[in-house]
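Protein record

Derive tokens from sequence
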Amino acid sequence: DPERDTRKAAANALTETIEQNSHVANFIFNTLLHEKQTMDRLRHFPSPEAERHLSNEVDEAVVNTVVEVCVNNYDIVADYYRLKQHLLGLDKLTHYDRYAPIIDQRTELSFDDARGIVMDAFGQFSTQLVDIAEPFFSKRWIDAALHTGKQGGAYCMGVTPDLHPYVLMNYTGKPKDVMTLAHELGHGIHDVLASKQNILNYHPVLPMAETASTFGEMLVFDNLQATLSSQQEQLALLCGKIEDTFATVFRQIAMYRFEQSSHRLRREQGEQPSEAYCEVWQNTMQEMFGDSLELGDEHQWWWLYIRHVFQSPFYVYAYAFGELLVLALYAQYQQEGAAFVPRYFDLLSAGGSASPAQLVGDMGFDIADSDFWQGGCDLIRQQLQQAQELASKVG
């Protein structure tokens, strides 16, 4: 919300409700962590994260490299929020200012406009991409209209290899919704291309699941920027894109580190009070922002609403893996142009039939190399520099 008092009131209400339920939620968390410790012992997993790495078909050393590279680039986050503090004209940023809009965006785009922007961007990459995406519109495989009682968010449902996928979203006419449409269509295209695989290899493993969706967003972003009428709106869209990337990359790594510390704390020292996990949460999240933003005392309770840490231990690093992977692939596309396209389609067509290391290796990359992941972070830094340049023009 553009009004800071509204954001603060919402944060207070969230904190109050979470804290009221913290005793029960913390008991559940302790119990789940102890259960996982028991199952890991019985199944001979050497660490709390090992089961997830096996499921993702990724070596622990690779995950550790991704984490290390992200932590070493936390300064990107801090530099961005210093810029945002200037843009918002605030003396200090706190946790309820993180997603405050830079301006009140007024541009509205019809669904037909969004379709045109997305299809034009896809066409610049490959006509094959347009051919795969077109039936989603003409055959009404997309449910984008707003309805009373319809669930929020966006999702692409790939059913089986012999059935087409569906895209479910809520289109409100905002520029960000165009990016959402591109994202979900990317998932759909991935499903269509992977339909040559059998039911067991149809879906890619989690670290590869966001490849086509995030790549689709990257293709559409520049086209969408060109439709906006002012530099202020371009800056607002770019800032939104940067914040989404932070949420997908750096924030997920911070949450992964919170999980690592929490599981080890539970195993080494037994059942813990909620305040102990609150301290771990606050420290691991604050490290990401440095001194650019102060996470207030309320924020220490907010780990209790992160359902992944309860339902899917160590799931979160797959988001960072996928986003940085796509940024590196997109940089390669910018260098190679049309020569990159066939290899990209081969990657998506493979579905889950090979490990991430093999799939990315076929693209000419080594996921064990820290320079590969640094290349993704370098592109995020470039986006920050673009925002800084636009901000200097806006004033």
Q: What stands out?
A: The chain has a mean pLDDT of 94. Residues 31 and 249 are 29 Å apart (CA to CA). DSSP finds 18 helices and three strands in the chain. The first strand starts at residue 142 and ends at 143.
